[in-house]
UniProtKB/TrEMBL annotation:
GO molecular function annotations of the record: catalytic activity; molybdenum ion binding; pyridoxal phosphate binding
InterPro entries in alphabetical order: MoCF_Sase_C (IPR005302), MOSC_domain (IPR052716), Pyrv_Knase-like_insert_dom_sf (IPR011037)
Protein name: Molybdenum cofactor biosysynthesis protein
Taxonomic lineage of the native organism: Bacteria, Pseudomonadati, Pseudomonadota, Alphaproteobacteria, Rhodospirillales
Domain MOSC: 22-171
Domain of life: Bacteria
Any single Pfam family the record assigns to this protein: MOSC
Protein backbone atom coordinates (compact mmCIF):
# COMPACT_ATOMS: atom_id res chain seq x y z
CA UNK A 1 0.00 0.00 0.00
CA UNK A 2 1.42 3.42 -0.92
CA UNK A 3 2.07 6.10 1.69
CA UNK A 4 -1.12 8.10 2.20
CA UNK A 5 0.40 11.47 3.11
CA UNK A 6 3.12 13.60 1.60
CA UNK A 7 4.10 17.19 1.01
CA UNK A 8 4.55 19.72 -1.77
CA UNK A 9 8.24 20.53 -2.34
CA UNK A 10 7.85 23.08 -5.15
CA UNK A 11 5.32 24.49 -7.61
CA UNK A 12 5.93 25.67 -11.18
CA UNK A 13 4.13 26.96 -14.26
CA UNK A 14 4.82 28.26 -17.75
CA UNK A 15 2.48 30.57 -19.70
CA UNK A 16 3.96 29.27 -22.98
CA UNK A 17 4.43 25.80 -24.46
CA UNK A 18 8.00 25.18 -23.47
CA UNK A 19 9.50 22.13 -21.84
CA UNK A 20 10.55 23.50 -18.44
CA UNK A 21 8.30 25.45 -16.10
CA UNK A 22 9.41 28.32 -13.86
CA UNK A 23 9.34 27.82 -10.08
CA UNK A 24 6.74 29.94 -8.28
CA UNK A 25 6.05 30.80 -4.65
CA UNK A 26 2.44 29.69 -5.18
CA UNK A 27 0.20 28.41 -7.96
CA UNK A 28 -3.58 28.58 -8.15
CA UNK A 29 -5.59 25.55 -9.25
CA UNK A 30 -9.01 26.12 -10.78
CA UNK A 31 -11.61 23.34 -10.85
CA UNK A 32 -12.04 21.75 -14.26
CA UNK A 33 -9.34 23.99 -15.71
CA UNK A 34 -5.88 23.43 -14.22
CA UNK A 35 -3.11 25.79 -13.13
CA UNK A 36 -4.04 29.43 -13.71
CA UNK A 37 -1.53 31.00 -16.09
CA UNK A 38 -0.10 27.68 -17.32
CA UNK A 39 -0.12 26.84 -21.03
CA UNK A 40 -1.57 23.38 -20.33
CA UNK A 41 -4.62 24.66 -18.44
CA UNK A 42 -8.06 24.31 -20.00
CA UNK A 43 -11.03 22.02 -20.37
CA UNK A 44 -9.85 20.71 -23.77
CA UNK A 45 -6.49 19.06 -24.46
CA UNK A 46 -3.56 21.52 -24.66
CA UNK A 47 -0.55 19.30 -25.41
CA UNK A 48 0.31 20.17 -28.99
CA UNK A 49 0.68 16.60 -30.29
CA UNK A 50 -2.73 15.70 -28.85
CA UNK A 51 -4.36 18.87 -30.20
CA UNK A 52 -3.24 17.87 -33.72
CA UNK A 53 -4.96 14.48 -33.31
CA UNK A 54 -8.22 15.78 -31.81
CA UNK A 55 -8.54 19.28 -30.33
CA UNK A 56 -11.89 18.41 -28.71
CA UNK A 57 -10.50 15.74 -26.37
CA UNK A 58 -11.02 16.47 -22.66
CA UNK A 59 -7.88 17.70 -20.94
CA UNK A 60 -6.83 14.84 -18.65
CA UNK A 61 -3.41 16.46 -18.19
CA UNK A 62 -4.30 19.72 -16.41
CA UNK A 63 -1.74 19.29 -13.60
CA UNK A 64 1.51 17.28 -13.77
CA UNK A 65 2.90 15.96 -10.48
CA UNK A 66 6.28 14.33 -10.01
CA UNK A 67 7.98 12.85 -6.96
CA UNK A 68 11.28 14.49 -5.98
CA UNK A 69 12.64 11.08 -5.04
CA UNK A 70 13.00 10.63 -8.83
CA UNK A 71 15.33 13.66 -8.93
CA UNK A 72 17.57 11.90 -6.38
CA UNK A 73 17.52 8.69 -8.42
CA UNK A 74 18.41 10.67 -11.55
CA UNK A 75 21.22 12.51 -9.71
CA UNK A 76 22.81 9.11 -8.98
CA UNK A 77 22.80 8.56 -12.77
CA UNK A 78 24.48 11.91 -13.41
CA UNK A 79 21.41 14.07 -14.16
CA UNK A 80 20.97 17.33 -12.26
CA UNK A 81 17.20 17.90 -12.27
CA UNK A 82 15.51 20.65 -10.27
CA UNK A 83 11.79 21.29 -9.68
CA UNK A 84 10.02 22.51 -12.83
CA UNK A 85 12.90 21.48 -15.10
CA UNK A 86 11.08 18.55 -16.69
CA UNK A 87 7.70 20.21 -16.95
CA UNK A 88 5.85 19.37 -13.76
CA UNK A 89 3.56 21.77 -11.93
CA UNK A 90 3.86 20.17 -8.49
CA UNK A 91 6.92 18.40 -7.10
CA UNK A 92 6.09 16.12 -4.15
CA UNK A 93 7.91 14.23 -1.41
CA UNK A 94 6.85 11.19 0.56
CA UNK A 95 4.25 9.83 -1.88
CA UNK A 96 4.69 6.89 -4.20
CA UNK A 97 2.65 8.60 -6.92
CA UNK A 98 3.29 5.83 -9.45
CA UNK A 99 1.76 3.17 -7.16
CA UNK A 100 -1.53 5.03 -6.70
CA UNK A 101 -4.55 3.75 -8.64
CA UNK A 102 -6.35 5.70 -11.34
CA UNK A 103 -8.97 7.99 -9.83
CA UNK A 104 -7.00 8.64 -6.62
CA UNK A 105 -7.66 12.11 -5.29
CA UNK A 106 -4.99 14.23 -3.68
CA UNK A 107 -6.13 16.90 -1.22
CA UNK A 108 -3.39 19.53 -1.39
CA UNK A 109 -3.08 22.38 1.07
CA UNK A 110 -6.17 23.97 2.57
CA UNK A 111 -8.61 23.46 -0.33
CA UNK A 112 -7.24 22.07 -3.62
CA UNK A 113 -8.10 18.56 -4.81
CA UNK A 114 -6.75 16.88 -7.95
CA UNK A 115 -7.71 13.49 -9.36
CA UNK A 116 -5.01 11.33 -10.94
CA UNK A 117 -5.92 10.38 -14.50
CA UNK A 118 -2.79 8.46 -15.48
CA UNK A 119 0.93 8.39 -16.10
CA UNK A 120 3.00 10.89 -18.00
CA UNK A 121 4.45 9.08 -20.98
CA UNK A 122 8.12 10.05 -21.32
CA UNK A 123 8.85 11.60 -24.70
CA UNK A 124 11.80 12.74 -26.82
CA UNK A 125 11.61 16.20 -25.26
CA UNK A 126 13.35 14.69 -22.23
CA UNK A 127 16.34 13.81 -24.42
CA UNK A 128 16.24 17.27 -26.00
CA UNK A 129 16.58 18.66 -22.47
CA UNK A 130 19.36 16.24 -21.41
CA UNK A 131 20.66 13.43 -23.60
CA UNK A 132 19.75 9.99 -22.22
CA UNK A 133 17.08 11.30 -19.83
CA UNK A 134 14.21 9.44 -21.52
CA UNK A 135 15.90 6.09 -20.91
CA UNK A 136 16.77 7.13 -17.36
CA UNK A 137 13.09 7.58 -16.46
CA UNK A 138 12.12 4.19 -17.84
CA UNK A 139 12.57 0.85 -16.09
CA UNK A 140 11.23 -2.69 -16.08
CA UNK A 141 9.36 -4.38 -13.25
CA UNK A 142 9.99 -7.95 -12.09
CA UNK A 143 7.67 -9.26 -14.79
CA UNK A 144 9.41 -7.28 -17.54
CA UNK A 145 6.65 -4.69 -17.99
CA UNK A 146 7.70 -1.12 -18.79
CA UNK A 147 7.68 1.29 -15.82
CA UNK A 148 7.28 4.98 -16.62
CA UNK A 149 8.70 7.10 -13.78
CA UNK A 150 8.16 10.64 -15.11
CA UNK A 151 5.18 11.47 -12.92
CA UNK A 152 1.41 11.46 -13.04
CA UNK A 153 -1.20 13.64 -14.70
CA UNK A 154 -4.37 14.91 -13.06
CA UNK A 155 -7.44 17.08 -13.34
CA UNK A 156 -8.54 19.69 -10.82
CA UNK A 157 -11.63 18.74 -8.81
CA UNK A 158 -11.52 21.64 -6.31
CA UNK A 159 -9.52 24.80 -6.72
CA UNK A 160 -7.19 26.57 -4.37
CA UNK A 161 -3.72 27.92 -3.79
CA UNK A 162 -0.82 25.44 -3.60
CA UNK A 163 2.68 26.17 -2.35
CA UNK A 164 5.80 24.45 -1.03
CA UNK A 165 5.23 22.94 2.39
CA UNK A 166 1.55 22.17 1.82
CA UNK A 167 0.41 18.77 3.06
CA UNK A 168 -0.96 16.22 0.61
CA UNK A 169 -3.58 13.70 1.73
CA UNK A 170 -4.37 10.67 -0.45
CA UNK A 171 -8.00 9.68 -0.95
CA UNK A 172 -8.16 6.28 -2.64
CA UNK A 173 -11.04 5.49 -5.00
CA UNK A 174 -13.43 2.60 -4.33
CA UNK A 175 -12.16 -0.86 -5.20
CA UNK A 176 -11.45 -2.51 -7.51
CA UNK A 177 -8.46 -0.25 -8.12
CA UNK A 178 -7.24 0.26 -11.68
CA UNK A 179 -3.49 0.66 -12.26
CA UNK A 180 -2.26 3.84 -13.90
CA UNK A 181 -1.73 3.87 -17.66
CA UNK A 182 -0.31 6.65 -19.85
CA UNK A 183 -2.68 9.51 -20.70
Amino acid sequence: MPTLTGAVVAVSLSPTHRFSKSPQLQIHLRAGFGVEGDAHAGTKVKHRSRVRKDPDQPNLRQVHLIHTELFEELAAKGFDITPGAIGENIATRGLDLLALPQGTRLAIGPSAIVEITGLRNPCAQLDNYKSGLTQAVLDRDAGGALVRKSGVMSIVIAGGAVQAGDAIQVILPPEPHRPLAPV
